[in-house]
Amino acid sequence: MEVSYILDGLNDFQRQAVAAPSGSYLILAGAGSGKTRVLVNRIAWLIQTQNISPYSILAVTFTNKAAAEMRTRIESMLAMPVRGMWIGTFHGIANRLLRSHWQEAKLPQNFQILDADDQLRLIKRVIISLELDEKKWPARAAMYFINSHKDQGLRPGNIEDYGDIYIKTNLDIYKSYEQACQRGGMVDFGEMLLRAHELWLNNSTLLKHYQNRFSNLLVDEFQDTNTIQYAWIRLLAGANDNIMVVGDDDQSIYGWRGAKIENIQLFGSDFSNSETIRLEQNYRSSGNILQAANELIAHNPGRLGKQLWTDSDDGEPIKLYAGYNEIDESRYIVSCIKEWSDQGNPFKEAAILYRSNAQSRVLEEALLRLKIPYRIYGGQRFFERAEIRTVLAYMRLISNRGSDAAFERIVNTPTRGIGDKTVQNIRQLARHRDVSMWQASISLVDSTQLTNRSRNAIDVFIQLINSLDELTKNCDLSELCEIVIAQTGLQSYYEKEKGERGQARLENLKELVTATKTFDPEQIVSFDPLNDGTNGSETAETQTLLDDFLSHAALEAGEGQGDLSQDCVQMMTLHSAKGLEFPLVFLSGLEDGLFPHQMSMQEPGRLEEERRLCYVGITRAMKKLVLTYAESRRINGSETFNRVSRFIEEIPRELIEEVRLRGNVIQPPSGLKPFKKNILAGNIEGTGLTLGQTVMHNKFGEGVVVNYEGEGKQARIQVNFKGEGSKWLMLAYANLQPL
DNA sequence: AAGATAGTCGTTTTT
DNA sequence: CGACTATCTT
């Protein structure tokens, strides 16, 4: 068969990876070095030339989107659908395993997946039931405690408290939470991975079966795997040692979520005969941009070492703009985009990146002013919206009365006279008798414990759910969804909600109905033929469509993105920009305290991760890169003065062209205070000092001039000192030395 | 039980 | 500043 097309157009190293004989490989793939291409072609190569059945391939990706894209690309390359191959996220794959082997995993067949929101609610309730002070033991912190230990594969029994009250209390919460989950048949994200791991650890037949079946493993974004994911994949690889992992230690930006770059080193020592292949040729960015990225990341110690290079020209210098505040900064960015568009380029080729979501607002306003279309990525996802979750909770309770999480969510939504106190009663009884809240409420209706009023209210609710269940017995998913929306009163509830909000919610409900209509579980999971000819231990249980849909909603919260069909400027956080590329990129808010973020500046390890984040940002740019910062910025309502980001200082000066157009192109906003005149001019008269200039003070050391007011003897100057923060000084006595 | 108002606290995000 | 919560009022 003619297979050269699989290798055509690849460079030597890419080809080496794609056509490697079986074994274990670590592909260190720099930004823009064609790593997805390598993975796709590798799989195509295995199937097409090595006679490997798709059935024996398992590929893990970081997001559902990446999994879908990879499958599409492989299928279009091979010009045929690839059945039997598993491509998905760790969680998606774990879910699938647990659904097939729910008995071995000691789970109910229709176990419920808790997303972060469900989990937090449940933990809150656990804390209350342990009679702990919520102020002293915030649910968020407990959730972090639980999740980070699960990420490391640690159950309560594996954690030592050393008499530490903090650990001890959180451990109690963890234990109690675990019981609540088990009782309710609920599994959070971390738990899915733990269970999938334990499933194999405790069941060698099953493990052998999967080791036999998946003799070809591939893992993308390997630098983002956590401890339990690594352990799971190591276990599966078994003695086959036939695995290819692809990653880039310089793009590891999820350490705060448990990802361990160390897994890359571990791979080398753990898979003893592993080979490392470096992909260092960058096909994305022009020379200047790439060099800036290289120089920046070189400031990180302990890298595995990669030097990206490119064939392309130096290209344009990187632009640097200092706005005097965030509004000025935004207007500069928008004026650049206007210019870009006037030159005949589409908006969608421009991306504005920022460190935190809060920064998007000012940018939005600036874009709106010039009527430039934009799209903000990230933010709230479809299945995370309150109204959607509410409808899903109804659907869940109809299918499974035991779901306390669903019960709590909807028992009084829309309001039907069941208040806090009544719910507390139900909860108490449920706990006391160790039954579900649903059963507890039935008992309460029959008892005399409650006032007539609340008893009636509960009864109405019970009847509602029962009648809905009856009514929808033979309905398909979308009919069920429509009936729920209409009969529960949610429709009229949101109709009454004032403002645009209610309208938006109704729109979302309509969209949910559409989603149920088009939902096709085969697309998500791509079911295998049942018998694989080994020992038939994969018993693909028949899940109800509803359960599939609910799992889907939890696992894939719904891309808040997509729609590149419209020509919009792309706006997103640096984190969500990973894996994407744009001809024109703006990195905004490059200020110490914002980026690197205040909370990450003290600890070296975290600062390095911020630097990698900056590296990711720079390497998104193909042709043009514009860096901006603001000398003053309103954060949380109060004005702050930050010094320019240290990351800018780590980029060689000669690659950067400073843009100076203060008081020229950009008009200052109205309502200027008098001293801002000075800012517009930049120079502070009669001092030889300039705003933004670095100066030295005898006592406070190095700092940046950020503001100025008054004249002559009264003149005061504001300087933001390294370490000391910002101070107002009398200019006459300050004795500042320009640096 | 539900609505109104005062108080708190601010990363990043996928599963 | 503004989203979210805790507490107070009806």
Quick structural gist:
With 739 residues, the chain is an alpha/beta fold.
What does the model show?
This protein has 739 residues and is an alpha/beta fold. It folds into five domains: 4-100 and 194-281, P-loop containing nucleotide triphosphate hydrolases (Rossmann fold); 112-184, Arc Repressor Mutant, subunit A; 318-381 and 563-671, 3-Layer(aba) Sandwich (Rossmann fold), CATH 3.40.50.300; 383-518, PCRA, domain 4 (Orthogonal Bundle), CATH 1.10.486; 683-738, Thrombin, subunit H (Beta Barrel), CATH 2.40.10. 45% of the residues lie in helices and 16% in strands. It is built from 30 helices and 23 strands. The strands form five sheets. Strands 9, 10, 11, 12, 13, 14, 15 and 16 form an eight-stranded mixed sheet that branches. Strands 3-2-6-7-1-8 form a six-stranded parallel sheet, with helices on both faces. A five-stranded antiparallel sheet has the order 22-21-20-19-23. Helix 6 packs across helix 7 (139-151) and helix 7 crosses helix 8. The longest helix is centred in the N-terminal third of the chain and has 20 residues, at 165-184. Mean pLDDT is 87; it is low at 524-537 and 663-681. The structure holds a DNA duplex (15 and 10 nucleotides).
